[in-house]
């Protein structure tokens, strides 16, 4: 298991906290809630070690359009970057609905 | 032709319960709009033991506890997530379950008739937390037995993981069991029996044989289950309501242990029994 932490700048606020997904093979759990400062913080616990650059690439892409100041916790059980990206988008969609 | 059309229409309108995650299952079983989660994912009550062993935890530890109403009556629903660690019972998830039963019992003692549903999909105790897991399972049994004298405790077994080990006994202790054909109910799972006793005892990959022994239809036919339901979220919700309308069962399954012992004693273990044999022979011993 590997733990990682990333920060991103933010300018808007999270409308609603959301928990999605399951920590099951190839899937992940995402918790998203408003952060206490004007930044986004991402904490990742993943079952697969050695993919920090890949995580950073997916998060860089995600935060290129996402501006809410969010505390995001990811519990990952070996999801592919595509699955991670879709879960993040789903979380944002549900936090706005 | 028209018959086929009806069939396909009914399949389209049917929503699977098995496909729902634990939180969605609890929401489904409670009256619409009444779901209120206790110790939810944002409380971050996670297993401290899993990360120590290099395993990623889940924010609800695989167990969702929700208050609400069923048929307008106060209710608590406990739903296990079968996909997280095989629906295994660890310290946090088991304690959430035991305390939910305890709070429901205290409500009942105060004159608030709170009913309880346990939606199970579990491989049994979580091996990474084995000792504490077994202790909390004992708590669960004690609280379940204390609660079932006030209100029916209804167990729903659905999902492909099935219900094994510690939670199969919880099902046995409950007031009523509702089950789907897809699920299995057994103390030892077929994989465990194959591993421990060998292929001559059981071939765990023989689905027809395994489901014939411990699948929902067989468990219903041999009296371990009270209601056999299709995998339909609304039908299961309705079955839960109908079951509560029956009130406390006149005879609990655990009160019938003498009958079950007689049935087991009648089985000659030197021959291989078929699902049909068991149904026939057990029916004769009433």
Mean of all residue-level pLDDT scores of chain A? 97
Q: How would a textbook summarize the main sheet of chain B?
A: 7 strands, mixed
Specify the structural class of chain A. Answer: alpha/beta
Biggest interface, residues from each chain: A-B, 17 and 18 residues
Q: What is the average of the pLDDT values of chain B?
A: 94
Descriptive report:
The complex is a heterodimer of chains A (97) and B (286). The model of chain A has no long low-confidence stretch (mean pLDDT 97). Chain A has a single domain, classed as 2-Layer Sandwich (Ribosomal Protein S5, domain 2), CATH 3.30.230. The longest helix of chain A is centred in the last third of the chain and has 16 residues, at 81-96. Chain A is 29% helix and 39% strand. In chain A, strand 3 and strand 4 form a beta hairpin. Chain A is an alpha/beta fold and 97 residues long. Chain B is α/β, with parallel strands linked by helices. Chain B folds into 2 domains: 15-250, 2-enoyl-CoA Hydratase, Chain A, domain 1 (Alpha-Beta Complex); 251-286, no CATH class. Helices cover 43% and strands 16% of the residues of chain B. Chain B contains 12 helices and 11 strands. Chain B has helices at 2-13, 22-29, 49-52, 91-109, 130-147, 166-173, 190-197, 207-214, 216-221, 233-245, 257-265, 275-284; strands at 36-38, 63-70, 73-80, 88-89, 115-120, 124-125, 153-157, 163-164, 176-180, 185-186, 227-229. In chain B, helix 4 runs parallel beside helix 5 (130-147) and helix 5 packs parallel to helix 6 (166-173). Classes of the chains: A alpha/beta (97), B alpha/beta (286). The interface between A and B is medium-sized, with 17 and 18 residues.
Brief write-up:
With 97 residues, chain A is an alpha/beta fold. Chain A has one domain: Ribosomal Protein S5, domain 2.
Tags for this entry?
heterodimer; A: 97 residues; alpha/beta; Ribosomal Protein S5, domain 2; 6-stranded mixed sheet; 6 strands; B: 286 residues; 2-enoyl-CoA Hydratase, Chain A, domain 1; 7-stranded mixed sheet; two-stranded parallel ribbon; 12 helices; 43% helix; 16% strand; globular; disordered N terminus
